[in-house]
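Quick start: what a row looks like.
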Amino acid sequence: MQNRMAVVLCNLKPAKRRGLSPAAILSARSPDRVEILDPPSGENHGHGPGLH
């Protein structure tokens, strides 16, 4: 995992973001498989990805 960018989520105070409750935001592919979430190509360090 060296020299690789990844999207990292932190545990924030519960709040609706763009009309979504925190329970609606998932970070796993499926219950039995977890993968590293890659940011969009060309993304800069420290930039918060948007919801599309």
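That is the whole record. Residues 1-40 form one domain. The chain has one domain: 1-40.
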